[in-house]
Amino acid sequence: MTGITPAEVRTALLTRSEIALIDLRDEAAFATGHPLFAAQLPLDRIEIEAAQRITRHATPVILYDGGTGIVETAAGRFAALGYWDVRRLEGDLAGWRNVGFELFEDVNSYSKAFGELVEHRRGTPSLAAPEVKALIDGQADIAILDARRFDEFNTMSLPGGISVPGAELVLRAATIAPDPDTTIIVNCAGRTRSIIGAQSLINAGIPNPVRALRNGTIGWTLAGQVLDQGREDRAPEIAPDQAAQARHRARNVAYRAGVKQIDSETLIAIASDTRRTLYRFDVRTPEEYARGHLPGFLSAPGGQLVQETDHFAPVRGARIVLADDLGARADMTASWLAQMGWEVYVLTGSFDATETGNPHALPPRPAAGRYRRPYEGTDNPTAAMQAYLDWEYGLVDQLARDGTHGFFVI
Q1: In the predicted model, is pLDDT for residue 118 greater than 90?
Q2: What domains, with CATH codes, occur in the chain?
Q3: Is 17 in contact with 359 (CB distance < 8 Å)?
């Protein structure tokens, strides 16, 4: 098997050449440290996930492990699936470290680092947990919008919160808080989705005061405040005029980020380019997707796509096309992906949703080897939650040291 040096991988990342840098360790080991744009795909999931996550067999697939000797086995499995440009990172993970390149901890690291850069560059306004609790206790005119997945919201949430997953925020904010004097507070479990959610509303020109909950439910818990459990509150349906207004706002943001809109004919032309990987994502809610979606589009709710980009799109340098019948969700999601360095398009025109269900759903991963996230669940150790926040605070400086990200912030 051909080798590739860490310096050559870095060059590919800097020039935005297509590359899939694959970490073969389990998730818990991956979270201890990995290159910024590495994607985690353990040996026993290659046959299950590779075809959906690395869609073009000519993609350069770069494999490494932690020195356990499984790269050759993994390469054989990729080759059996039809991938023909499979290489080994020379020196494996230690080789990357030994030449002085950065290793990033945790999972979805570059999305989280990007969120920290957004706050750093834009000064996204936020409130500490005690300040938000005082507003709740004082029955202030506020609306608390939880930007996580619904299942996370249902597990634990702020008192009075409403589930509005990230890409839905600009679409639904005016329905939830029609009075521009109502302060909107966006929260997640940690920091990233709070920052991106709040800044989405600000970027879109929502007239309300907007604040992120600083440090999310972690900050709430560390302040000794009690979270609700089992809440079912979801955002209400929106009127057509509000959907149109949201689409206009979101399109302006996407335009500023350099996002291009394409029609179905242009999509066919892009998809026919066999030299490039193309991801097609439907960024609506999973429920909407199951009721009907465009053929060939995978379900990737917009907020989670921005949060977990390395999982959905492990081929750095690929193209991405987003679909959404109402438009605002695709435009806002695309605006963030563009700032993260992706070549991203929004599909326009009629929405002929002819497929139902979720034929592309991957079987869930087993619990063994999973990284225990300090921001999920209700029984996380205090030290782990604080350590996670301290790690996030340092990501902007680490991005600068690494130098491969190519992010910009509008």
Answers
A1: yes
A2: 3-105 (3.40.250.10), 114-238 (3.40.250.10), 241-347 (3.40.250.10)
A3: no
